[in-house]
Design goal:
The structure is a single chain. This protein is mainly alpha-helical. The chain is built from 17 helices and four strands. It has a two-stranded parallel sheet. The chain is globular, with a radius of gyration of 22 Å. The chain starts with 13 loop residues before the first strand and ends in an 18-residue tail after the last helix.
Length: 448
């Protein structure tokens, strides 16, 4: 079994620890679903790029800019805007569910386990933003895109990890997912507070009504209706759509509504005692129901409408990549992410005497931190919010996000594929027989 590259401290919490067996099973299930979504995401983006640079490119942009909806409700939007504001709200709804699940019933309810990945995620946001701002300091308009290189695309990253890291320790996978979850939380805060230019107070206040009704029904659904939890979405979904529409009309980006509604869903079963092992609640049921919709439709459609950019041949590509905006994004994602994540992980180890989990080494964390440089979905969204759809800066930002994501994936593959081969050779030594209760010994030897 690989050991730490430094002597472990006996009294500190583990850095990126193995976690509980129940958490490992749950994370494994999520990763399998996200792998399929990541493949569809890449395929949709590839189709968009090819179409946008083909002789039929005008039809792609005409489709993306085609408007549908009802203007008096502020809902006459282009198909591209519907994908970003509407479909992506489904993705952020699942983010809200996952965040609440982690902090209520997951391993992150333990502050000792949460502090290191949370700090690492913060470092993975702050350092890329600082790198971008330093590179674009002389241009106030360009500086507005500082948040573009701060996001991690979990679907894309997990798809790469599934291909190259089938034998990596489960603690690494948990660390990656935790990073992405906290990263999403920070991205939500950025979208809500930084990219809201004007707030319409009446619509915002009206939003509180359906959100309150939604929350009450979600929390007390059985008491009010006596129906099975699986049927809850039939009543809650229309109320959620009204809340989304009102928040959109208020000027706040509508994807924030998805997060708020996700937070409102109870995690634990309402009739099972309320403890961490109380059983599935509406959150788990909704996650099973809506994750295929998000990974299989909502996010790929958003990628299709957002990734399409006319590069204009080698000269156009060179021009895009030489833009300080693009350079700042690439440097932020490819360099800033690993520097921030590894730096904060190391610093937390020093401050808290945390030890590296015995199942892997620092080079493995390097590979994971490189993988976190895959921005894509949220980065493309933030680029549109920063520069505006159809602008040259936004097109260059898209080229940079796509290029940086591919480069980060390749660098991570170089590191993790080598490590994966080593773990494959020693997998027989690491694997242990399960006890009579079906739980492997490694999860019962004091590593919680």
């Amino acid at each position: 079994m690989p050991s730490s590259s430094h002597s472990p401290e006996p009294h500190g919490p583990p850095v990126a620890g193995r976690g509980s067996y129940a958490e490992a099973l749950r994370i494994g299930e999520i990763l399998r679903k996200e792998t399929v979504g990541g493949a569809l995401l890449v395929a949709a983006a590839a189709i968009a790029i090819i179409w946008a640079n083909s002789p039929w490119s005008e039809s792609y942009f005409a489709l993306r800019n085609f408007k549908v909806g009802y203007e008096p409700w502020h809902l006459e939007l282009s198909l591209g805007a519907w994908a970003a504001d509407g479909l992506l709200a489904i993705f952020f709804f699942l983010v809200g569910l996952e965040l609440k699940r982690e902090f209520v019933a997951g391993d992150l309810r333990d502050p000792r386990k949460a502090m290191v990945p949370v700090a690492a995620a913060v470092g993975g946001v702050v350092v890329p933003a600082l790198i971008y701002v330093a590179w674009n300091w002389s241009d106030p308009e360009a500086r507005g895109g500082w948040a573009v290189p701060t996001a991690t695309d979990i679907a894309f990253a997990v798809a790469v990890l599934a291909v190259i890291g089938s034998h990596l320790p489960s603690a690494l996978r948990i660390f990656l997912l935790t990073l992405a979850v906290v990263d999403d939380l920070i991205a939500i805060a950025i979208i809500a507070f930084v990219y809201t230019e004007e707030i319409h107070v009446p619509e915002l206040l009206l939003t509180l009504i359906p959100v309150a009704v939604y929350t009450l029904l979600a929390q007390k659904f059985r008491r009010f209706f006596g129906l099975k939890p699986a049927a809850a979405w039939l009543i809650l979904l229309p109320i959620g759509i009204v809340a989304w529409a009102l928040l959109h009309a208020s000027g706040i980006h509508a994807t924030v509504a998805g997060v708020l509604l996700g937070f409102a869903i109870p995690v634990l079963h309402s009739q099972a005692g309320g403890g961490p092992e109380a059983g599935p609640g509406l959150a788990e049921i909704f996650e099973h129901r809506f994750r295929p919709v998000s990974a299989g439709f909502a996010v790929p459609v958003f990628a299709f409408f957002s990734a399409g950019v006319a590069i204009g041949g080698a000269g156009g590509l060179a021009s895009a990549l030489s833009d300080p905006v693009a350079i700042g994004i690439i440097a932020g994602l490819v360099l800033g992410k690993p520097i921030g994540i590894l730096g904060m992980t190391w610093l937390m180890g020093k401050l808290t005497r945390a030890r590296l989990d015995a199942s892997f080494r620092w080079v493995d964390l390097l590979g994971i931190s490189l993988l976190a440089g895959i921005g894509f979905t949220v980065s493309l969204l933030v680029a549109e919010l920063s520069f505006g759809l159809g602008t040259a800066a936004n097109d260059h930002a898209k080229v940079a996000v796509l290029g940086a994501s591919v480069l980060a994936a390749l660098l991570a593959a170089m590191v993790l594929s080598t490590r994966n081969r080593q773990y494959r050779r020693i997998e027989a030594e690491e694997r242990v027989d399960a006890n009579a209760d079906g739980i492997p010994d490694v999860y019962q030897d004091g590593q919680k």
